[in-house]
Amino acid sequence: MQHYDVIVVGSGGAGMMSAIVSARGGKKVLLLEKLSKIASKLKASGGGRCNITNTLSNDEFMKNFGRDGRFLQDMLEVLDSLALREFLNSIGVVTHAPDGFRVFPTSHNSATIIEAFEKELSRVGVSVLCDQEVIEVLEKEGCVYGVKTKIQTFFAQNVVIATGGKGFSKLGTTGDGYRFAQELGHSITPLFAAMLPLVAKESWTEKLRADTIAKATLRVDLKKHKKLKARGDLIFTKKGIRGPVVLDFAREITPLVQKYGEVPLVINMAKGMDEDKLYNFLKQQPQTQSVLEVLQSVFATSVAEVLCELAKVDGELPFLKLKGESKANLLKIATATPLSIVGDDGFEKAMVTRGGISLKEVDPKTMQSKLVKGLYFCGEVLNIDGPCGGYNLQFCFSSGYLCGKSIVKEKEYE
User: What's the pTM value of the predicted model, to 2 decimals?
Assistant: First the structure.
């Protein structure tokens, strides 16, 4: 029989951090990972570059998580972005913010962070076991007392669930934590794929795959959701859209697709100009040029061609001969291009999961379950997610840190 003070299930950023902090506090810690290596999803984060956090103040940081942002307040008080960078530096990871906002390891390689965490896990005496898939969290009379894996059973009076969500499922995040939580009485909010490409009904997107549209604006064209919009670089695909602006906006769109079946968007690819500003700009071009040539003063050739096609305008016609109704239609299409989103690429391509364990059932001051003593949650398994830009990794590290601190203090009080 193997007894520990703390068992951490899942070896992502949240899990490794909670294990290290618990062990630094003198606890005997076991870290369990179902795959053959630890931190597989962290390794893939940011295309392998690992955008750790950002330089926003705590208040601004929380605002970007929406109405649940205040849940992060206590964890950021113990480990905000500056403290995280200091922690990483203390274990040998130097960081910088080359654009003044996003923070990366100076190596721009996630392996740098994983290697540093592995060394620290070893230094503080955390037992790390891979190829150990947990199948049950053991509980009796409202208290946890261990976990059962496919191979053996381990005992501890504190169990940390840091299994992540369902995104990038091939990297081990298959939603196990949700099942454990439900079996112990917790509620799980609806789960949606987030931070991933979106699938469109229209086929013309395939014609624009060669060009990245800088500073495009996307807006939901539904009466109840017209306030939802995003701006950033847009990339068209054979099936729809992707790119930084889509990764951010997908977390708002995927729940609406499930609700309505189809979500109409309008896209401004005219560098933010409205119809009047675009027309005034186009009037400054030689009017004897063709419609296509005039449009190319603002849009890439492929985009100009598709806009003409959608507006049913002859692109070879001299711009000065374009009639009023056709011109108005072209300007409208060019500044508010309609696109219908009907799906996404699923959890296999999702970097983040929207939804998870209800925050109402977790104490934000400790990360401990309000329902089961000794049960803790941290990271993406919880019902909270942020946009691109280091938000989600900071949340994972901060929640894991608070979790470890709370376990150490809880023991001190007993």
Answer: 0.92
